[in-house]
Design goal:
This protein has helices at about 1-15, 15-30, 45-70, 90-120, 125-150, 155-175, 190-210, 215-235, 240-250, 335-340, and strands at about 260-265, 285, 290, 300-310, 315, 320, 325, 330-335, 345-360, 365, 370-375, 380, 390-395, 405-410, 420-425, 440-445, 455-475. The protein has about 475 residues and is α+β, with helices and mostly antiparallel strands.
Length: about 475
């Protein structure tokens, strides 16, 4: 432990100039980012450009800090002076990880806390989401930067290696994911990837520090990257459709005795007109498969659909894909090449819909003001610069589950004689991500302006169980349901 702290102190002294620059950039980031939030006073377009530049400069400085940190005791080659010192390899790696945690990650977390406080949000309530964001950050930024630095000799080679890797990955992913339509991720996909690939990358880093066998470490690192790309290709091209289908079926079970069911209204199928196919790529089918038996007050979260088609000498099974469930039915995506063999032909269709049902909590009435607290840790404000839809709500890292907001709004100016009518909007769920700005904000479209002093009713929707329903359609001509 003493040796680890000694190396850590030496690294801080060697990089104090870069650390000072990092501190200046983080302070500038904390000052500039709030100027781009909705409702900020006197927004400056130049500050918006500066904010975009800071989002580029800070990751570049991360790479510089980490590369110089590792190259201070370079692992590539066999003529480094540091090898003659009585350094324990475990202490050396521990010192480097300690430097990254204390001098790179913690200042960045503190900056995000400052932004949350500036937005009127409580960072303590968002601790879980913050730690999850940092896990993302560590897996996709810090760990790859450490690995690239560990298998390169200089900052220039580290930068070029990383740049080449990003370009190759972007090209392969664009090729693998293009043209197949949307996909539903199996449950716990991030957790599985984090354990398998994060553990593999950490093992390569430890191996390089222990053995300094750079050639072998590079080969293993390339192999891990190739396996990860194959993993994504398999997911995109449905090569693992069986296991993924099994996981989703287990995650969304059929509920015995549930009133929920899919009902197909094939009345429009009797008068099929050849509307022609879209020119390229996948297209939408608006299937009149209606979900019945759901509580009128309930909503759906993460709805997905999978369907199979059987025709003359033809069988097609779609991947699980996100779906729009409306009163008129389901809007699904189908590849053109999968549709062409059954164009104008009656087919047998099997549909499975999986989703999580949300039910409303007890209403919470809050009086609108220039700034006021909202349920689930939100902070809302009335933007005086907007004559309509002036309600803006902010949350930390991610918004809560969908929340409906209702109250009186006006189409004119807020004064004692303003005529009002009932308006309503929905605060939608925003998935957790890795963006540097931890504040998520949404303009709530109420259909008019909310005046200060108006009572607003917030209703938060909570999970009420996952379900899966299935539907068999013996004969249907899909041409009738091509969306145009």
């Amino acid at each position: 432990m003493t040796q680890t702290l000694h190396i850590f102190r030496k690294d801080v002294m060697h990089q104090w100039r870069d650390l000072m620059m990092y501190a200046v950039l983080l302070v500038a980031f904390a000052v500039v980012i709030p100027q781009g939030w909705m409702g900020s006073a006197n927004p400056n377009p130049m500050l918006t450009i500066l904010a975009l530049l800071l989002k580029v400069w800070i990751p570049i400085l991360w790479l510089v800090l980490i590369a110089r940190l590792v190259h201070d005791e370079c692992l590539v080659g066999d003529q480094q002076f540091w090898v003659t010192r009585p350094y324990s390899r475990g202490s050396l790696l521990g010192a480097k990880l300690l430097f990254v945690a204390v001098c790179v990650v913690l200042p960045f977390m503190a900056t995000q806390w400052a932004l949350l406080l500036r937005a009127g949000l409580n960072p303590v309530m968002a601790m879980g989401a913050h730690l999850e964001t940092m896990a993302f950050f560590g897996l996709i930024v810090v760990l790859p930067f450490l690995l690239v630095a560990a298998v390169t000799r200089s900052l220039a080679s580290a930068f070029m290696t990383l740049l080449g890797t990003v370009i190759v990955w972007a090209g392969v992913l664009a090729f693998a994911m293009g043209g197949g339509g949307p996909r539903t991720s199996p449950p716990y996909l991030f957790e599985v990837c984090a354990v398998i690939f994060g553990g593999a990358l950490m093992a390569v880093l430890i191996y390089q520090y222990v053995s300094r066998e750079t050639a072998q470490a590079r080969m293993v690192l390339i192999a891990v990257a190739v396996v990860f790309l194959l993993w994504i290709c398999c997911f995109s091209n449905m090569w693992f459709v069986g296991p993924m289908n099994f996981l989703i079926r287990q995650h969304y079970p059929v509920q015995t005795g549930s009133p929920l069911k899919l009902v197909f209204d094939g009345s429009s199928d009797t008068n099929v007109q050849d509307r022609g196919l879209p020119q390229n790529g996948p297209f939408a089918l608006d299937l009149p498969a209606k979900l019945e038996g759901m509580d009128a007050a309930a909503r759906l979260l993460d709805a997905s659909v999978m369907y199979s088609i059987d025709g003359p000498n033809y069988h097609y099974v779609s991947p699980w894909q996100p779906v729009i469930v409306s009163e008129s039915g389901l809007s699904v995506v189908m590849p053109r090449k999968a549709f062409e063999p059954v164009h104008g032909v009656p087919v047998h269709m099997h549909v499975m819909l999986a989703a999580e049902q949300l039910k409303p909590d007890a209403p919470v009435v809050v009086t609108a003001a220039d700034q006021f607290k909202a349920p689930s840790g939100g902070n809302c404000m009335l933007d005086a610069s907007m004559s309509k839809d002036n309600l803006i709500c902010r949350y930390a890292f991610e918004e809560p589950l969908p929340t409906s907001v209702r109250g009186n709004v006006t189409d004119g100016i807020c004064d004692a004689h303003a005529e009002s009518h009932v308006g309503g909007g929905v605060i939608h769920e925003v998935p957790l991500g890795t963006k540097p700005d931890p504040v998520v904000e949404e303009q709530v479209r109420m259909g008019g302006a909310v005046c200060a002093g108006t009572p607003l009713t917030f209703v938060v929707y909570r999970p009420a169980g996952r379900f899966r329903v299935e539907l068999d359609v013996p004969s249907v001509v899909l041409d009738a349901y091509i969306a145009h």
